[in-house]
Each structure stands twice: as C-alpha cells, then as structure tokens.
Please model this.
Amino acid sequence: MLPRVLALVALGILHLPWSSTQGCLSKQQVANTIRQMQKLLSSHEAAQLQNMRNLKKQLTLLQGNIQKQVAKRNESCTLLPAPLNGRRLGKKTLVGHDAHFLCDPGFLLEGSETRTCLDNGTWSGQQPFCKNINDCTSNPCANGGTCVDGTHRYSCLCPSGWSGATCQAPVYSYWVTLSNSSFSRQPRCAENVLGSRQCSCDTGFQMRAGGICQDVDECQLFQSSRLTRICLHECVNLPGSYRCTCPAGYRLQADKSTCSDVDECAENQHNCSRGQMCINVFGGFRCLQPECPKPQLNTSYVKTSAAQCERSPCPMDSKACQRAANSISFHYLPLQSNRTVPRVLFKMSTSRFVGDSLRFAILGGNSQGMLAVQRADRQTGELMLTRPAVGPTVLEAELEMSEFARKVPLGKHIFKVTVFVSQYEF
Model:
C-alpha cells in the first residue's frame, strides 16, 4: 500500500505547476507537497492500525468462544441409564446436577439413590439396580404352610387342617372334605333332563371318593422324570395348576417353564467398583481386577488394557527378561454344569505371525485332567474340556503359545484362563 501511495504523490508532484520565471518548483510549492504527503501517509497509517486492532479483537473473541465451547463440553457427564424395573429422575448432565433413582413396586433399590455429576466428567456413587423383593423372606405362612412368592404379593398353600391367608385358622374335621380352599373343593353339579344329578370338577381337579374334587399334583406326576418333566428347574404345585420357578440369577422365560441366565453386567445389576471388570457367569456375576506380575529379574510388565499386560523393554544383557513372556492376557469363561465332551472352550492364535511354527502347551492350573490343548491348524490352538465338569466349581489353566523360526524361539504369550462352572445344567 505504501509504495502505491508514494507513487501517487510522485505523480502529483509531476503535475504541479512550474514557476514561470525560473522553470522549477518554488519552495512554497515543495513544502505544500511534502505536507500533503505527510497527511496522506498519516491517514493510511491510522487506517492500518485500526484494521489491525479490529482483527486482533475478532481473533480474541473467536478464541474465547472456542474455549467456552470446549469448557462446556468438559462440564458435563454422560447420561445415566435407568435401572431395570425402575426409573431415573433428572435428565440434566451438567456438573453439579443430580440424578435420582426409584424402583417399581415390589423391587428394592441397591446402590446409590442419588448420583452427582462431578468436575472430572464422572458420576459420584455406584450405578444402582432394582432387586426383586422376596415376600416369603419373612416366613409369613404359619403351621407348616408353603409360601409362594408372587408379583408384589405372596400366597400360602396350607396343609391339611389349616386355612386362611397365612394358614392361621384351624379347619374342623366335619368340613375339611368340603371346604378346603386350597386343594379340595366342592364339585359343580346340575340335574339333567332325566332328573339325575351329574357333577364335574374344575380344570386341574379330579373327582375322588366321597364326591370331592381333589387337586391334581402335576409336579408329582411329571417332574420326577427327565422325559416328562414340565419345569426346567423346580415345580410348585398350586390349586388346580402348577408354577415353574428359577433359581437366583435366572429369569423365567415366556414359555413359563424354562429359565435363562440374567446378564447382571449388561443390565447394570452389579456392584463392581471402579477399576473392576464385571464378568457375567451362569446364575450370577464376578467382580475381577487382574494384576500384572511383580517386577523380578529385570523383567517388568505394564497394563495396556483391563485384561492385558505387556513386557517392558529388556536390558541388553538380561537373558531372563528376554526369555519371559512378551505379553500376558486374562480370560474368563462361563460354563454350565455337566456339559457334553469333548468341547472347545477357548482358542488362541496370533495376528503377527513372523516365524515358521507355533507351539501350544498347558503350563499349570487346577483342571485335574479335565482340560487339554490341541492344535486346530497351523496358527491356532484350542483348549478342550475332556471330561464333564460338575458345578459349582472353578477351573484354571495357564496356557503358553510360543513362536519359533527354524527352531529358534522368537517370543511367547501367556493366556490365563478361568472357567466358572455353574451349579445348574442350564
């Protein structure tokens, strides 16, 4: 800009009128021209400074807006899920805001009732879950009655000679056969066109001697045999019917007879603390935090993930470190009791195969001959269950996969495998 201004001023000088007597500019004309140049330069300099100030101001505002947006993102937490069979109150996730949790009727809240969004973007407390309230825990049925837990309520199956909501009232002998409200009742009778009386029983009852409808015990008839059993787990006889139940950690399926495992880890129904892994097993869960081996013989490991340890670089002269495993990984497997064999439980291989052969072996554990290693192909080994495992029990095996090039060892990996065998076969 400045050279252009000077050029224009120079052109202006060239066009100034000449003195008629001397043929050159007068001193007054030269002075006037210089003053005009100074004024022009001063005005352009002021305009440039103002433009620079405006640009600097805009850059400062832009930087402040970016910092505010970054700070705003950092001042919030992720939205917490509502527990199964419960609700979450409060949708704001900014720092300082609270989230409250409630359970549906018939369920009890386990964990933190209120959690607060902290400055570091995490929530205080533990993720809560809603636990079903077993109404039979207090043993409400008297006189040897059997308590059947229901949804938000319970019912008592009374033995012979007792009746009432909690089997608290004795039934006198002269009306036991006619008014037992649990497992015997009066038949439905009507007179036909011939004038004779015909009686029938409701579904689930059968006529017995004396004209009384007695409950059919489906559990006793069918549950004792594997070929005819009507419930996968346990059967509870009810007046005119029956009910299948599942053990803790399982959920009754829509068919009302089979049970499926509840994944407490996926449904946030666990109490594992920060830093622990939630491992779902059949009928429950485990909170685990595997640790790397302690440093020894110039060999140390660093944790690269929740279930993986990598060996630190070895000193040049440390053969013990160079012979140690390059990495150690931890694996946890759920297994039902008494499964058929042989069965593949775990596979091991490598994605960075640079040698010409791999060898697989079991270094230790407590499998007591139930586990073995076999080669599936050139780059894959398999951990096999060779004998049925009856639970509940825990099987452990330490596996080694070694890589060789022309019989020279290149490295090895350790797999620490833990198998949690459940109590049940489903």
